[in-house]
Specification:
Helices cover 50% and strands 11% of the residues. Helix 4 runs parallel beside helix 6, helix 8 crosses helix 10 and helix 14 packs across helix 17. The longest helix has 27 residues.
């Protein structure tokens, strides 16, 4: 099994890889006990070979590989590569370029949303993957032959998948569709975490501006501390505890001691003082500076019914063009189109507007309707 454990061998391999038009790339990592993922293995495939690079090997310098990731003449092919790209971005400060993602390409080719690698291997390579090594501990050394065989399979079969999907995309003239989606992976903002936005991912049953302000302060503090200590967020403070703090607004250590989910060591430690200071900060904010609860406002009359028709229209268009519905329009896009007087969403731009957006606006304006024709749901133009 070809496992690269020193810088000299890595340089030699990267020199060969520079001659390829593309390489396939995958990673194995763990993050159960850390905030940042720990890179444990990098797999790279060329046309006639595949290697695994051990980033945990003593003395190895990954710089030659990082340079390869930036080589403009070599396409870096991933499958569902967001986490892989994020790892390399945080390690180097640069996003691999140029890149291609076969999961995105598969969506364009009608495989549905978030199609798995094993499904594409079965379709194009005509084999089944042994998944028994998927959840092994990749930081342990030495790696077994079975682990390496599994890991290398992730880039070996990816070559076939990439070539077949790329050929289909070129034939159907949909490369622009793929590039639009790849733009998200290429954007550094995709991987940037604003601590003061993290609270938005926490589900709140009965949101009120003041409570949301407190939650925002607590979540930002937890995010910054988790990054600094390199521990999972829940090790600092669990979501449900933050929600309880934001709702109960304890003002003293004694108040904190009455709450569930806070250990005595936490309450007696320095973090409890910071929690109380953050609560005071949130309580003192002017109400206009607190996050506001979203209201529907002046929605288009009949918006709820229109939303259901837009969902059906999206399904019709997705089936017609053999493309995953999510790639054309998200649920949020449909909501905005249905409820906003002047919707501004990706579904109304570029190729999406041609495929779906123009029909969506025509349906909203009453220029077309959904009806039955030849026993199929069809679009009917109205006079």
């Amino acid at each position: 099994m070809n496992l690269i454990c020193d810088t000299s061998d890595l340089k030699t391999f990267c020199k060969r890889a520079e001659q390829s038009s593309y390489i396939t790339v995958d990673t194995e990592f763990i993050r159960e006990t850390t905030y940042w993922p720990q890179l444990c293995l990098v797999q790279v495939g060329l046309a006639d070979e595949a290697v695994a690079i051990d980033p945990l090997a003593k003395g190895i310098d990954l710089h030659p590989f990082f340079e390869l990731l930036q080589n403009p003449n070599v396409i870096k092919v991933f499958h569902s590569g967001r986490q892989d790209v994020e790892i390399f971005y945080h390690l180097t400060g640069h996003i691999p370029a140029p890149i291609f993602d076969t999961q995105i390409a598969a969506m364009v080719c009608g495989f549905g949303e978030s199609v798995g690698y094993d499904v594409l291997v079965q379709k194009y390579a005509k084999i089944s993957i042994d998944k028994s090594s998927r959840y092994t501990h990749w930081a342990q050394r030495p790696l077994t032959e079975k682990q390496l065989s599994y890991a290398l399979g992730d880039v070996t079969h990816l070559r076939t998948i990439y070539e077949k999907l790329y050929s289909k995309i070129i034939t159907e003239d949909r490369l622009d569709w793929v590039q639009d989606e790849l733009a998200i992976l290429k954007d550094p903002r995709t991987y940037a975490i604003d601590p003061y936005d993290v609270w938005k991912k926490i589900k709140v049953r009965s949101p009120k501006p003041r409570m949301l302000a407190l939650l925002r302060e607590l979540a930002a503090w937890r995010e910054i501390l988790s990054q600094k200590r390199n521990v999972p967020r829940g090790r600092i403070l669990r979501d449900e505890v933050m929600l309880e703090l934001a709702a109960a607004t304890p003002r003293s250590v004694q108040d904190l001691s009455r709450m569930r989910g806070l250990s005595s060591s936490f309450i007696e430690g320095p973090d409890s003082k910071i929690i109380l200071e953050l609560i005071e900060k949130g309580l003192s904010l002017p109400i206009e500076d607190c996050p506001q609860v979203k209201r529907e406002g002046n929605a288009v009359p009949g918006a709820s019914a229109l939303l259901e028709m837009l969902k059906l229209l999206l399904k019709i268009k997705a089936e017609k063009y053999h493309v995953a519905p999510k790639l054309i329009a998200t649920s949020a896009d449909l909501e905005v189109i249905a409820r906003s007087v002047d919707p501004q969403v990706p579904a109304l731009q570029g190729w999406r507007r041609e495929v779906f957006g123009n029909s969506a606006l025509a349906l909203k304006a009453g220029e077309i309707a959904l009806g039955i024709k030849n026993n199929r749901i069809s679009l009917i133009k109205l006079d």
